[in-house]
Design a protein that fits this description.
By secondary structure, the chain is an alpha/beta fold. It has two domains: about 1-155, VC0802-like (2-Layer Sandwich), CATH 3.30.2130.30; about 175-215 and about 250-375, Rossmann fold, CATH 3.40.50. It contains ten helices and 15 strands. Helix 9 (about 315-330) links the parallel strand 12 (about 300-305) and strand 13 (about 335-340). Helix 2 (about 40-50) packs parallel to helix 7 (about 230-250). The longest helix is centred in the N-terminal third of the chain and has 19 residues, at about 105-125. Bound molecules: S-adenosylmethionine (SAM).
Length: about 400
Amino acid sequence: MTAFYATCTLGLEDVLAAELQALGAGEVHARKGGCGFTGDLPLGYAACLWLRTAVRVQQELARGRVRDRDDLYRLTQTVDWRRSITHLQTLAVDAAVRDSFANDTRFPALVVKDAVCDQFRDRGGKRPDVDRERPDLPIKLVLQGEDAILYRDFGGAPLHKRGYREIQHKSPLAEATAAGLLLATDWDRRSPLCDPMCGSATFLIEAAWLATDRAPGLLRTFACERWRDADATAWRNLRDQAERRAAAGLGHLPPLAGNDRHPGAIAIAQQALSAAGLAGRIALTQGDARDFVPGVPPRAVVINPPYGERLDAPTEELVASWRAIGEFLHARARGATAWVLSGNPELTRHLGLRASRRLPVHNGPIECRWLRYEIDDRAAPTPIVPGSV
Ligand SMILES: C[S@@+](CC[C@H](N)C(=O)[O-])C[C@H]1O[C@@H](n2cnc3c(N)ncnc32)[C@H](O)[C@@H]1O
């Protein structure tokens, strides 16, 4: 049994905790920006492959009190780093530091790197190189006051990189955030769902994978697969089982539809759908949201509209986009539940609807609300009530 810490978008900790429980993790406890849990190495692998909301999965290797450089050096040397990599492989150290003996992150990261490399040199001669882009062993130091924890990062590249996206939309929603937001809704994964401002189709792909029981990590590899103590059999079994579940799940894809007014976004979305194994399975149209007619009336609508900066006065263009959402919901989504991500309360008013639930969640640096609206099936537009969002 070993201790892990998985990170996620702020606000989605409870969603991540539920995912971990479902995976069979032990001692799951949500904290700000992540969840601690316990398990064996294969559980760590399963976490990389299956967690939809997690950004990183890290295994705790050492923890201790650190008052100065020497304490940190000694703590780092208590770990046998040669269990993870050989001197022919690479490493990188990333640090998060608050109220510690060091006043920046670079110095303690350097101390850890030196301690690891010295251990290799002292015991065998050669030391591993540093590779900041794609290290075989990504090490994370968290130093808060005098409390230090050293982790090895199972994923390497953050887990929201699912392995299907080559071109980014200019304001994409990170895949792990999109998946966590979907998991926070009450969508039953069988009813029709649409996104009238789908951009690069992040919500649609995550929704399809959720509904078809496809592991979000199936298209990529993870740093831990390259470690010396990697359990190749456990990995093979996990991947085989995930492939079987994905194949069986494809028959359960509900009607999903997307739309965006930007032709470039639709082209990126089409490409992403193909790479994600969903070519021809999700209907995409190009046009203004107010004219969007999904092939099947939606039961669930998810939207990540443009909202500019949180406290900026909304531009006319932004207001028009939010009004278009209101018009679409009233005209084409009666009886559905809509979820809208808003980073600007000034804009939210322009929907002309009153939210029945508001989940505070971050999208990158912006504090947002994931707002739920029940669309009346007799819907006549409700008058806008300032401040009622
Ligand atoms: C924040 S982006 C959505 C990003 C998307 N969630 C993704 O991950 O790629 C907002 C999208 O809304 C689209 N949009 C804005 N106003 C629109 C309107 N009135 N009708 C249709 N699409 C609109 C933009 O073209 C843009 O792609």
